[in-house]
From TrEMBL:
Sequence ranges assigned to domain N-acetyltransferase in this UniProt record: 12-154
Pfam families in the record: Acetyltransf_1
This protein's UniProt keywords: Acyltransferase, Transferase
GO molecular function, one term: acyltransferase activity, transferring groups other than amino-acyl groups
Stated name of the protein: GNAT family N-acetyltransferase
CDD domains membership: NAT_SF
């Protein structure tokens, strides 16, 4: 099997990224996302690096995975946490090292940046498979619960 290469997403990736966001939301949470909103939201990240950045995993020239990194300032640490979000791996590429390649790339970039104090992600409480994957990669459950008021999806 060909190795996975990781690259920064660009404007030409917006439609594929947004389509994969919708597929992931439907598969993992049973949510149907609005196509125009996901296109605008994805494009906003590509056009404004202060919002974050997308990474695309490719194998044999085909996109097989993606994730988004966003930023959270920590006054306690005087540094920035990178949040891994919007993870998607194409169904036929799952369990073949695609997420591992994305994760390792993020970790290497984060460790090389003296302003980054850590990497975080959130996962659905019922997604035990994903939780096991993250634990196997050295992440551990934090002692925080997540609360929100969602003005868009409810």
């Amino acid at each position: 099997m060909e190795p996975v290469s990781i690259r920064l997403a660009h404007a030409g990736d917006v439609e594929t990224l947004a389509q994969n966001h919708r597929a992931m939301a439907l598969e993992t949470e049973g949510k149907t996302l609005d196509p125009e909103t996901t296109l605008r939201g994805t494009r906003a990240v590509i056009e404004d690096p202060a919002k974050g950045f997308y990474l695309v995993a490719e194998r044999e020239g085909q996109a097989v995975g993606q994730l988004l990194v966003t930023f959270e300032w920590s006054d306690w640490r005087n540094g920035t946490f990178w949040w891994i979000q919007s993870v998607y791996v194409a169904e036929g590429a799952r369990r073949t090292g695609v997420y591992r390649a994305l994760y390792d790339h993020v970790l290497a970039k984060a460790r090389a940046d003296k302003n980054v104090c850590g990497v975080r992600l959130y996962v659905d409480k019922e997604n035990h498979h994903a939780q096991a994957t993250y634990a196997a990669m050295g992440m551990r459950a934090a002692h925080y619960d997540f609360f929100e008021i969602d003005f868009v999806l409810g």
